[in-house]
Amino acid sequence: MERLGERSAARLDTILRHLSPRLAAAPAPISIPTSAQVSVAPHSGRFSYTLDNDVLSTEQRQFYEDNGYLLIRNLVSDEDIERFRKEFTRICRREVKPPGVMIMKDESRRSQFGQSESVVNKVQDFQEDEELFRYCTLPEVLKYVECFTGPNIMAMHTMLINKLPDSDQQTFLHPMHQDLHYFPFRPASRIVCAWTAMERAHQDNGCLLVQPGTHKTALKPHGYPEWEGKTNKLFHGLLDEDEKIPKVHLVMEKGDTVFFHPLLIHGSGINRTSGFRKSISCHFASSECHYIDVKNTIQEHLEKELQEMVSKKYNATSVELKDIWNFRARLVQGERINL
């Protein structure tokens, strides 16, 4: 029991050092922004979740191997974040209308705030918006993405989240989930999300919440949580969440970027502040990944729900889940092979 306690304490210390630069050793040179260095003895054998290159240190690769995420401090510049913020505002005001963009709103706030960022809580699928899509092509982001996907990189899913103040209704609480639930392509080890804080993200304004190590588990059944009056469309969560697995709040400063595995169980809390909590993200995948047929799998009900939405919006029939993702996908580096 004593050895188990020592291992648990060492694991917690590793995670805390990864999240807090004040607790960490000296950072790497500014030319290659990196997360805090951690002292973890590498396992023998090949790494399963990262590829060989000269970007990640052995310690960083081991941290991702063990925990399923890697936090890189100060990766995206203030200048780029301000440009993304201005474009988001233009979209909210309908000054620009990029094709294909899905804008999610809190309609109950429209009468008070009109067409503004105070109403829009998410801009999704911005692959046709030249300014926002720049995020998916930033060299400093792709440099790290390649460590997980390899050189042929597809941008598969894009989001700018504007978590609204929500201390009472909990409307924008996202239940714990695995992103792979939404994806009809594999292998999971060649998919990664890059998630960048556009301002300080902390527990009070609904920062990301992760369960380290859960990327090593299988894809679990998802559905709508039993929150009466508090469920958003397609905000699926685990149907059987294991409350015993420790959770870690990812406190991040503006420009910090976390890369995480699509099987990592994560979510976000509610925003108890009076301000907004913005983030921009993209799920990347190797173009060598392949589509799968989700029929007769635990993802089948998601395909049916999306088919109903697409049919209603575009009057389309016989749409498969892979068709929706193929439409969204954009090559950002290398050669387009399968996706």
UniProtKB/TrEMBL annotation:
SUPFAM superfamilies: Clavaminate synthase-like (SSF51197). GO terms for molecular function: ferrous iron binding; L-ascorbic acid binding; phytanoyl-CoA dioxygenase activity. It catalyses: 3-methylundecanoyl-CoA + 2-oxoglutarate + O2 = 2-hydroxy-3-methylundecanoyl-CoA + succinate + CO2; hexanoyl-CoA + 2-oxoglutarate + O2 = 2-hydroxyhexanoyl-CoA + succinate + CO2; butanoyl-CoA + 2-oxoglutarate + O2 = 2-hydroxybutanoyl-CoA + succinate + CO2; octadecanoyl-CoA + 2-oxoglutarate + O2 = 2-hydroxyoctadecanoyl-CoA + succinate + CO2. Keywords: Dioxygenase, Iron, Metal-binding, Oxidoreductase, Vitamin C. Pathway: Lipid metabolism; fatty acid metabolism. It is an enzyme of class 1 (oxidoreductase). InterPro entries: PhyH, Phytyl_CoA_dOase-like. Belongs to the PhyH family. This is Phytanoyl-CoA dioxygenase, peroxisomal.
